[in-house]
Design brief:
By secondary structure, the protein is an all-alpha fold. It has helices at residues 20-28, 36-44, 62-77, 82-90, 99-107, 122-129, 133-141, 153-166, 172-197, 202-234, and strands spanning 51-52, 58-59. The longest helix has 33 residues, at 202-234.
Length: 239
C-alpha cells in the first residue's frame, strides 16, 4: 500500500515570495525530514505567519524562510520546546538572526531589568500551567520554587516545565539535581564578580550586572551543549 503524496499549493505569485512547496524544497538540504505538513504545523503553532492569496494559498517571504530555518535549528540542535521558541521570537522585533546567537540570547539572564512584580496565587498558577496541587507542593518541598508572597513568572515557568516533564514520568525529586547544579554555577559566578556586585559605585555595579548576564548566558549555553553532545551519542545509528 502506498501513501499518497502531500498536496502542494500553487506557485507563489511573484519572485519575492515562495510557495509552501518551494519552501519545503529549500529546507530539505539542511532538514531532510521536513515536510509540507510540518510547515503547516509550525504555522498552526503560530511560529510563522505567511501571507495568503485571495484564493487562500500561502506566500512565504525570504524572512519567513529564514525564520523557519532558525526555528528548525533551535528545535534540532538546541532541543528547545516550540513554546519557548515562539515566546522568544515574539519578543524580538527582527527575525534576522542566527540560531546559535538566538539560543544564547534565549538562555541569557536579564538581571539588569527589574524583576517582574506580578504575583500569582495558587489557583491562578494551576489554571495557567495545568499543573496539579500535588505537583506544586512537591516542587516546593524539593526547593524548586518558593511560594512566599505568591508565585512569580519564574516559578510559573518552572511549574509549567515540571508539568510537561511529569507527562514523561519525571518527578520533582528527579529535578533536584538541576537546583543543585544551578546553585553551584551561581556560586562560581558570584566568586568571579563578588567585588563588583558589592561595590558602592553605581557604575561599577552596573558593569558587574552586565558581565553577570553575559556569563550566565555562556554558562547556560555551555551546559546545554554538553547535554546535546551526550544526547547525540544516544541517537547514533546502531551498528
Amino acid at each position: 500500500m502506498t501513501t499518497a503524496p502531500e498536496r502542494t499549493e500553487s506557485p507563489a505569485q511573484d519572485n519575492a515570495t515562495l510557495s509552501i512547496g518551494a519552501v519545503c524544497d529549500a529546507l530539505k538540504a539542511d532538514f531532510p525530514s521536513i515536510s509540507i505538513s510540518k510547515i503547516r504545523y509550525l504555522e498552526d503553532q503560530k511560529l510563522v505567519s505567511p501571507k495568503r492569496t485571495p484564493g487562500g494559498y500561502r506566500l512565504f517571504s525570504p524572512d519567513d524562510l529564514e525564520r523557519l530555518r532558525t526555528i528548525l535549528r533551535l528545535q534540532r540542535d538546541e532541543f528547545l520546546p516550540l513554546r519557548v521558541i515562539r515566546q522568544e521570537l515574539e519578543s524580538h522585533a527582527s527575525v534576522s538572526f542566527s540560531a546559535a546567537s538566538q539560543a544564547k540570547q534565549i538562555k541569557r539572564a536579564r538581571l539588569s531589568e527589574p524583576a517582574p512584580s506580578r504575583r500569582y496565587n495558587l489557583d491562578e498558577l494551576l489554571e495557567r500551567t495545568g499543573a496539579s496541587t500535588v505537583l506544586v507542593r512537591e516542587l516546593e518541598e524539593y526547593g524548586l520554587i518558593n511560594t512566599d508572597g505568591g508565585f512569580d513568572e519564574v516559578a510559573l515557568e518552572v511549574v509549567q516545565s515540571a508539568a510537561e516533564l511529569a507527562q514523561y514520568g519525571v518527578q520533582p525529586r528527579h529535578l533536584r539535581l538541576f537546583r543543585t547544579a544551578a546553585e553551584r554555577e551561581a556560586g562560581l559566578l558570584e566568586q568571579l564578580l563578588a567585588s563588583g556586585l558589592r561595590s558602592r559605585n553605581p557604575d561599577r555595579r552596573t558593569e558587574a550586572f552586565a558581565v553577570l548576564e553575559e556569563l550566565a548566558g555562556l554558562v547556560s549555553h555551555l551546559r546545554h551543549l554538553m547535554l546535546v553532545a551526550e544526547l547525540r551519542s544516544l541517537v547514533q545509528p546502531v551498528t
